[in-house]
Amino acid sequence: MITTDICIIGAGPVGLFTVFEAGLLKMRCHLIDALPQVGGQLSEIYPQKPIYDIPGYPEVKAQELVDNLMKQIEPFNPTFSLGERVDFLAKQDDGSFVLTTSDKTKVHAQVIVIAGGLGCFEPRKPVLENLENFEGKGITYMVKDPEQFRDKKVILAGGGDSALDWTIYLSQIAEKVTLVHRNETFRGAPDSAAKVFDLANNGKIDLILSSNLTKLSGNGHLQSVSMKNKAKEESTIETDYLIPLFGLSPKLGPIADWGLNIDKNAIEVDTTDYSTNVERIYAVGDINTYENKLKLILCGFHESAIMCHSAFKYVYPDQKLSFKYTTVNGVNSF
Asked: Which superfamily is assigned to 2-122+249-333 in CATH?
């Protein structure tokens, strides 16, 4: 079991900055995120999108902001459980919590901070008969460890950046890579699309356009995938893995069952410290709601700073909070 002071659900920009604010007060943090990497929407959906409302940065790309946040929190040595969703929350006799993730990781924490942005991102799944029978048995919706696909036959489906990027990467690892897309053109970066076409022209991958997945077959594990093109012609390809990359849908997920006050898929908080109606559970960033709420990253940063000062009393109940400005002593003095 992982033991920490604060467990942060969500490793987006607000969750990452919470580590910094907690670290200044000598509180340890463990972060859990359903995505396989930190950064939340910034890294998963629009890493190259410019952001204009971060103080001190007239313009900063989304991924650059995430990278800088990671450098900022490095002195505080946070730990991470990525590619995992929090499924269960159990309150202990002393008021602390034990969280259990989808991978059965257990985390014991004095305080829970929900910084899940728009919620838990869940994959958009293709509409296929018996899909659930092959989930975890040949069908996966994210690439957590590329080595899993070494010397295997892999079919990827999708037309965005994730589908293009993983097609390019896995072409160097897998025995055979096939990319299936329902259109003739891609939504992803033109440079990545050009690389995919080059790989196909050079025989490094198979590229099937204007086709939709229609059928899955296998005996205990996925063995083949069928698809149909615009002319209604059907073909079947043998494979070890199918990776549908159709994007992500934000959902509140199991958090909705924790007894929190929720209004339109957002968690109600007290603006004095961004606490929820459940003691020791806070919510910061886009996932919370209150009067005059602004869904801005910089507002989430403010909320996390206030929240950490409130959480201190649960982590150090016998101590009086004495906070010095970082400009006086510097980060390394805390």
From this structure: FAD/NAD(P)-binding domain (3.50.50.60)
